[in-house]
Amino acid sequence: MLSDKSRPVIEATLPVVGAHIKEIAERFYRDLFTTHPELLDGTFNRGNQAQGTQSLALAGSVAAFATALVKTPGHLPENLLARVAHKHASLSIQPEHYKIVHDNLMSAIGEVLGDAVTPDVAAAWDEVYWLMAYTLIHVERGLYSARGVRPQTVRRKWEVEKKIQETDDVVTFVLKRSDDRIVKPSLPGQYITVEVRMPDGTRQPRQYSLSRADQGQQRQFTVKRVYGGGKPDGEVSTLLHTTVNVGDVLTISVPYGALVLDDYSGRPMVFASAGIGITPMAGMLSHLAAAGSHLQIMLLHADHNEESVALRGQILDDISTLPNASIYVWYEQGAASRFPVHGVFAGRMDISQVRLPDNASYHLCGPIPFMHAIRNDLLKRAVPPRDIQYEVFGPDLWQADYD
Ligand SMILES: Cc1cc2nc3c(=O)[nH]c(=O)nc-3n(C[C@H](O)[C@H](O)[C@H](O)COP(=O)(O)OP(=O)(O)OC[C@H]3O[C@@H](n4cnc5c(N)ncnc54)[C@H](O)[C@@H]3O)c2cc1C
Ligand code: HEM
C-alpha cells in the first residue's frame, strides 16, 4: 500500500508522468542498454526494441500500476502483474535485476521531467517502483519454486526430433529432452521462451505457445515465418525456419504463461483465433482431448483459406475425439472446405453466424484488431469481461484486461 505521504504526491504528478511516460520509457531503455549491454544478449528481445513496443508496454504498466495505487489501493491490476511475472520468469529475470532497472528508470524520470522532480516527488515514485518490483519479485519467486527451478536453471537444451512443414510459412518443431532431468509439465495455454544464437553472436529470446499437450518427454511448438514487407524479416522465426533441423539442439525455458485453461469449472469453452493465433488453441484442445474431456467446446477460427490453417490435422483429430466439440471456420478467400468442419463462412469472423453456448468462458488469440472486434461483440452480448481471456503475441499494448 502506498504511504499517506506519497499518495498525494503521486496523485498530483501522475498527469505529468503519464504525459511523458513514453519518453521516459524510451530514455530508460537507451540508458539501460548503454550501462548494461549484456541485457541485450539473451534477455531482451531486440525486435520489440526496434519497433518500440516494449517501451510502450512498460510505460503502460507503470501508469496502470500507479493509477491503481491511487484510485483503488485495495485492488492491484492482477492480470497485468501475472502476465509480466510469467514473461519475466520465462526470461530468467532475477531479483538483483530490479536494482539495475530502478536506477535507470529513476534517472530517466529525472532527465525527462527535470526540476519537477523534487526530493519528495523522487521519493514517492521510488516507493511506487519498489511496491511494483517487490510484488513482481514475490510472484516470480513463487513461479520459479512451483516449477522447481532457479532463474539460472529455467532454460535447458532439447533436441529437435521432428520438423513438420505445416503450411507455406509455418513449421512445427517437436523436441525431445536431451538430459536426465525431470520434464516439468506444461499447463494448457502456456508458452516457452526459445533462445537462439544469431549470426552476430548475440542470443535472442522469443516466446512460442506450446501447440500440443506434453507427450512424456516431448514439447511441441509452431512458428510462423515473419516476412518484413519493407521492414527487416523477423530474425528468430527466419532462423528457426531456415537453419534449425532434426538433430539440432535448442535452448528452451520451462513452460510459463498466465493464460491457462480452467477446465475444472465445468463451463463451456469457446476458443476464437485467427492465423497463427491457432497455436495456443491447438495446445488447449490437445490437453482436453488427452484428458478425455466431456465439456462443450467450440473452436472458431479465421484464416486466408483451408491450406493456410496450421495444425489442421491435429486439431480435427482432437475435435473428433472430444464428444462435445465443434469447429467453425471463416476463410477470407471463400467458404470452401474439404475437411469435416461444422460450419464454413466466407470473410472475416462474425460470431453472430454461430450459436454460442450460454455461460461460456472465452479464449482469444490473433492480431489485436481481430481480438478487439471479437471482444467488443462479446461484451455487447453481455459476456462479462472476466470471462474473456486473450493472448497477445508480443508486448501487450492492448491492455484490455488491466482491471
Ligand atoms: C506469449 C507469446 C506466444 C507466442 N506464440 C507464438 C506462436 O505460437 N507462434 C509464432 O509463430 N509466434 C508466436 N509468438 C511471437 C514470437 O514470439 C515472435 O515474436 C515472432 O516469431 C517474431 O519473431 P522474429 O524474431 O522472427 O521477429 P523480430 O525480428 O522480432 O521482428 C518482429 C517485427 O519487428 C519488425 N522489425 C524488426 N526490426 C525492425 C527495425 N529495425 N525497424 C522496424 N521494424 C523492425 C519486423 O519486420 C517484424 O515485423 C508469441 C509471442 C508471445 C509473446
Ligand atoms: C517494477 C519493475 C518492472 C516492470 C513494471 C516491468 C514491466 C514489464 C512489462 C509490462 C513487460 C511486458 C510484458 C508483456 O506484455 O508481455 C515486461 C517484459 C520484460 N521485462 Fe520487465 N518490468 C520490470 C522489471 C524488469 C526487470 C528488473 C527486468 C530485468 C532486466 C525486466 C526485463 C524484462 C524483459 C526482458 C521483458 C520482455 C521484453 C520483450 O519481450 O521485449 N523487467 N516487463
Spell the H/E element sequence. HHHHHHEEEEEHEEHEHEEEHE
The Cα radius of gyration reads 22 Å
Shape: globular
Largest sheet: 6 strands, antiparallel
Distance between the termini: 17 Å
What does the model show?
The protein is an alpha/beta fold and 403 residues long. Helices cover 39% and strands 20% of the residues. The chain has ten helices and twelve strands. It has helices at residues 6-35, 46-51, 53-71, 78-90, 97-113, 119-147, 235-243, 278-290, 312-321, 368-380; strands spanning 155-167, 170-177, 191-197, 203-209, 218-224, 249-253, 269-274, 297-303, 325-331, 343-346, 361-365, 388-391. The strands form two sheets. The protein has a six-stranded antiparallel β-sheet. Helix 1 runs antiparallel to helix 3 (53-71), helix 4 (78-90) crosses helix 6 and helix 8 packs parallel to helix 9. The chain is globular and about 70 Å long. The protein starts with 5 loop residues before the first helix and ends in a 12-residue tail after the last strand. The model has no long low-confidence stretch (mean pLDDT 94). The chain binds flavin-adenine dinucleotide and protoporphyrin IX containing FE. Flavin-adenine dinucleotide (FAD) is lined by residues 47, 50-51, 191, 206-209, 221-224, 226, 228, 231-232, 234-238, 276, 279, 391, 393-394.
Give a quick summary of the entry.
The protein is α/β, with parallel strands linked by helices. Helix content is 39%, strand content 20%.
Layout of helices and strands, plus pairs?
Layout: H1 6-35, H2 46-51, H3 53-71, H4 78-90, H5 97-113, H6 119-147, E1 155-167, E2 170-177, E3 191-197, E4 203-209, E5 218-224, H7 235-243, E6 249-253, E7 269-274, H8 278-290, E8 297-303, H9 312-321, E9 325-331, E10 343-346, E11 361-365, H10 368-380, E12 388-391
Parallel strand pairs: 7-8, 7-11, 8-9, 9-10, 11-12
Antiparallel strand pairs: 1-2, 1-6, 2-5, 3-4, 3-6
Bound molecules: flavin-adenine dinucleotide (FAD) and protoporphyrin IX containing FE (HEM).
